[in-house]
């Protein structure tokens, strides 16, 4: 006798004659055909077991309160220790997070590990880390446009926004809970579950009991103004705490005979404690929530239990670092309340059976049959699909999907990129949802650069226009105007040539008016010059992932340099240039101007040739390397640059200059000039404060190098120099005040706001 056990169906076949065997075979095939239909239902029925308990059913009502909701975990621990089964769970906001995780089959310890391992403060910031951005978005830093990017073409058809879209939270919840779903109904979870949200249009409560569990939880915790609302069918949903912060009636209506409610909301402040705007706003919010909570508590029955962990008013909703304290408080409060309720436990055997049933009902990681794109961004569906792998019948890989969403979000000007597991008939698929930037496709940018030293102060204001929706591959047009001591106009078109956004065509034109000084060998100023230059460039490149690229460019430029102050013996300069340029770039810095971790490298070859209209033929090679590491409040970095004219025959407009903060800090700006320039630097920075009016950093550098006419003299006759400085990462860019020293000078004071670290030829500033 052979026994087949396909899922919950058992079929027995006996050895018999051929006719009977054929009959059995037909029956067997018929049963096999039924398996895909019956098996899921059979498992669902196992999880719909909450009908004949033989005991009173117990429901948990877990209230909202942000980080204070970590106390729910302490309550769950006590319930497990006292072998009290939970038959239904309803949660609001953080109560929905903890309740949803527990309902999915996690133990209290697993929920605790999840909550404590999660970097919640990072999740509440949707901004893509710089090292994860595309090269295009990293190159924005080179323009020094630090001011806020203001949208001037917002799409009024989009969802009303909060401070963040909840991108990272949505992705984390889906990765954690998506594989644990057992069909779209939350009643089929190991413990039936409901998340509570508020309909933003009507102000009514909405119970979420089917669909995406992750999105339901995300909706329940969408604090208005902080998170974007969640669209759920015809509803626009926000935090459930507005209407039902303690969902006692919800869990009772699910079938609970006894409700254990855990209230973690803020206590009301006394009159003496209401001494600031923040405190008053928090009090108003608490009053709004306290009313619906009080009504829920008043409606509780004598058999119900209320647990209040007793967290004080100083425990904020964002104090996730104090989550362990909340867990302990929840544990202690639950222990005290449940001490005299041993009757709630059905006994060791029944509790063990209950736990086993939860394990049997836990969802299995699905296999993905299809990928569906719901895309409203500036990019075409083909571009988005290029980032999402979709092999038929492939097992769900949550971490891989997270990386794909991160890559899509890092393209820039995308509000959110999320995924969820969906059912379409008998197939399980992946729904990728991409929402556009609510500010539209047109932006005004701004930046401010300030340089002050013994020669005076230069102030330059930049204003730019950026259009990000030129086409559905993400082509962009940008124009920047600079006014002040140095003026300029720059326009460019950035055009991806393929749907994977790897090949890039980038034409640009510019006109600049700069001022520079020439010095004698003793560092004395000889003349002040005004340099006007006009340039056009065509570039084509290949990007490799988000960190590396190879670019070929052709530039045609012309300029004139006129003396404004200085020796009458010097002649004005007119020049024309034309060059080929090859650049290899690697960039994984977390911050281009105040880096803490990561590396940067650039290798460039420049060929100036008369065939492109240049006055002189010459070849140059440029190398820049930089790396930073951070441990706690201490940051150290190393940087080196070596620029060389291969035949030492570049005209004056092709020479390299050095001097200024972090570019031979002991010298004046552009004080060093030569066919070659080398500069190596060791730096150290100590973080003084994260915020506030005090300087955020104190640091120092030790530098060595020189500019020279002979390559061997760059380091052979190098000069030791360095700096001491205070720095602040302001909203307008990095601000530095410091002192530069050199073994050849008495030192100089400097003030700097804006871009850093760059020695280019005079004609290509």
Largest sheet geometry: 18 strands, antiparallel
General shape: elongated
DSSP summary, beta strand count:
35
- Any idea what the CATH superfamily of the largest domain is called? membrane protein fhac: a member of the omp85/tpsb transporter family
The CATH topology of the largest domain is given as Porin
Q: Helix proportion of residues, in percent?
A: 10-25%
The second-level CATH architecture of the largest domain is: Beta Barrel
CATH class assignment of the largest domain: Mainly Beta
Uncertain spans: 1-48, 757-765
In whole angstroms, how far apart are the ends? 87 Å
Arithmetic mean of pLDDT? 86
Number of self-contained structural domains: 4
Radius of gyration: 33 Å
Question: Helical element count?
Answer: 16
Strand content: 35-45%
Notes on the structure:
This protein is an alpha+beta fold and 765 residues long. It has four domains: 2-45, no CATH class; 58-126 and 164-361, Cytosolic phospholipase A2 catalytic domain (3-Layer(aba) Sandwich); 367-436, membrane protein fhac (Ubiquitin-like (UB roll), Roll); 442-764, Porin (Beta Barrel). Helix content is 22%, strand content 37%. The longest helix has 30 residues, at 18-47. The protein is elongated, with a radius of gyration of 33 Å.
Q: What are the salient characteristics of this protein?
A:
18-stranded antiparallel β-sheet; disordered N terminus; eight-stranded mixed β-sheet; disordered C terminus; alpha+beta; 4 domains; Cytosolic phospholipase A2 catalytic domain; 765 residues; elongated; Ubiquitin-like (UB roll)
């Amino acid at each position: 006798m052979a026994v087949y056990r396909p899922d919950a169906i058992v079929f027995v076949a006996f050895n018999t004659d051929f006719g009977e065997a054929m009959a059995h075979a037909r029956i067997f095939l018929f049963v096999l055909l039924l398996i895909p239909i019956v098996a899921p239902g059979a498992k669902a029925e196992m999880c719909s077991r909450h009908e004949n308990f033989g005991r009173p059913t117990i429901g948990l009502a877990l209230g909202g309160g942000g980080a204070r909701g970590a106390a729910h975990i302490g309550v769950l621990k006590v319930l497990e220790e006292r072998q009290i089964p939970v038959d239904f769970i309803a949660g609001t906001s953080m109560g929905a997070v903890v309740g949803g995780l527990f309902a999915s089959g996690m133990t209290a310890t697993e929920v605790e590990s999840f909550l404590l391992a999660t970097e919640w403060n990072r999740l509440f910031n949707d901004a893509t880390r710089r090292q994860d951005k595309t090269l295009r978005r990293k190159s924005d830093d080179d323009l020094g446009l630090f001011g806020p990017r203001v949208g001037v073409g917002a799409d009024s058809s989009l969802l009303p926004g909060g401070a963040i879209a909840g991108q990272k939270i949505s992705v984390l919840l889906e990765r954690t809970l998506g594989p644990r779903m057992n069909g779209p109904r939350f009643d089929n979870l190991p413990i039936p579950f409901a998340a509570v949200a508020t309909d933003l249009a009507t102000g009514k409560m909405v119970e979420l009991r089917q669909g995406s569990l992750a999105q339901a939880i995300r909706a329940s915790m969408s604090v208005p103004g902080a998170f974007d609302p969640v669209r759920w069918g015809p509803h626009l949903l926000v935090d459930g705490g507005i209407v039902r912060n303690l969902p006692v009636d919800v869990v009772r209506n699910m079938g609970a005979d006894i409700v254990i409610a855990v209230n973690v909301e803020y206590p009301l402040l006394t009159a003496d404690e209401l001494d600031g705007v923040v405190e008053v706003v928090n009090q108003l919010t608490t009053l709004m929530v306290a009313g619906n909570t009080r009504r829920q508590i008043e409606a509780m029955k004598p058999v119900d239990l209320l647990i209040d962990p007793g967290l004080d008013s100083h425990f904020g909703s964002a104090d996730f670092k104090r989550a362990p304290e909340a867990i302990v408080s929840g544990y202690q409060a639950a222990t005290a309340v449940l001490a005299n309720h041993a009757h709630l436990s059905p006994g060791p055997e029944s509790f063990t059976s209950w736990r086993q049933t939860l394990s049997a009902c836990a969802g299995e990681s699905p296999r993905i049959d299809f990928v569906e794109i719901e895309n409203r961004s500036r990019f075409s569906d083909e571009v988005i699909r290029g980032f999402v792998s979709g092999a038929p019948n492939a097992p769900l890989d949550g971490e891989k999907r997270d990386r794909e969403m991160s890559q899509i979000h890092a393209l820039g000007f995308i509000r959110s990129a999320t995924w969820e597991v969906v059912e379409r008939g008998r197939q399980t698929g992946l729904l990728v949802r991409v929402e556009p930037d609510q500010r539209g496709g047109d932006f005004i940018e701004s930046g401010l650069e300030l340089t002050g030293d013994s020669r005076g102060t230069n102030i330059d204001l930049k204003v730019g226009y950026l259009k990000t929706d030129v086409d559905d591959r993400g082509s962009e047009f940008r124009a920047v105007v600079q006014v002040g001591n140095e003026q300029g106009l720059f326009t460019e078109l950035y055009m991806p040539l393929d749907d994977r956004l790897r090949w890039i065509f980038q034409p640009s034109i510019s006109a600049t008016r700069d001022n520079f000084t020439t010095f004698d060998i003793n560092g004395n100023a000889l003349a002040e010059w005004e340099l006007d230059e006009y340039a056009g460039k065509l570039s084509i490149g290949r990007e490799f992932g988000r960190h590396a690229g190879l670019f070929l460019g052709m530039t045609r430029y012309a300029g004139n340099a006129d003396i404004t102050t200085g020796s009458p013996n010097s002649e004005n300069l007119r020049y024309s240039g034309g060059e080929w340029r090859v650049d290899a770039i690697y960039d994984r810095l977390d911050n281009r101007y105040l880096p803490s971790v990561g590396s940067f490298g650039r290798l460039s070859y420049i060929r100036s040739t008369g065939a492109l209209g240049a006055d002189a033929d010459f070849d140059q090679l440029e190398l820049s390397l930089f790396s930073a590491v951070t441990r706690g409040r201490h940051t150290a970095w190393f940087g080196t640059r070596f620029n060389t004219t291969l035949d030492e025959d570049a005209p004056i407009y092709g020479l390299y200059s050095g001097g200024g903060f972090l570019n031979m800090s002991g010298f004046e700006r552009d004080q060093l000039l030569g066919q070659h320039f080398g500069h190596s630097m060791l730096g150290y920075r100590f973080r003084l404060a994260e915020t506030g009016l005090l300087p955020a950093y104190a640091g120092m550098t030790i530098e060595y190098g020189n500019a020279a006419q002979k390559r061997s003299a760059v380091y052979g006759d190098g000069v030791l120099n360095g700096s001491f400085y205070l720095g602040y990462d302001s909203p307008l860019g990095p601000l530095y005040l410091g002192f530069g020293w050199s073994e050849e000078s008495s030192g100089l004071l400097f003030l700097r706001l804006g871009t850093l670290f760059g020695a280019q030829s005079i004609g290509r500033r």
